[in-house]
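## retry 2 of 3
previous attempt timed out at serialization; input unchanged, resubmitting
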Amino acid sequence: AWPRNEIRTRIPHVIQRSRRGKSTLHAAVVAGGHLRIGERIRTVLQAVELVIAADRGLEHCLELGLEPDLVVGDFDSVGRDALETARAKGWPIETFPAEKDATDGEIALREALTRGAGKVTVFGALDGEDRLDHGFANLLLLGLPETEGLQVRLMDEYRQASLLRARELVELHG
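## retry succeeded, writing output
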């Protein structure tokens, strides 16, 4: 299997920092699960500064008119036309082997963190359609040690998931 420690960035991204020294860069990871695109998702996407598509998430990006800063994955679930479109547009693409110790979504999230994201919103990750294991794996991404102290959430048009760690506060609305 392909080792996690070899997931590295090839294209550096400018890191913006707040007065407290934490990055303010907001990244979107667009995964390949079911994604109903509505006003809520479009509003959040207008605020992101970095977009990484994970495998079939590339198709969501094309549907939304988003230009990903990077497309990653083993490309076992994305359509050939979408991948050819990305290549024709010159979008950066990193291909990973199918046999690896990380999901395409995890690779994309780690890439966003490597590029300095202090806030990451992951779309298309709450519903693995016919793959319940993908939905669980995506929820587990919230517990990665690298995400501690950062704002990481999985989101779709109607739901949102984030991990509340010890000594953290959350404010609920609605």
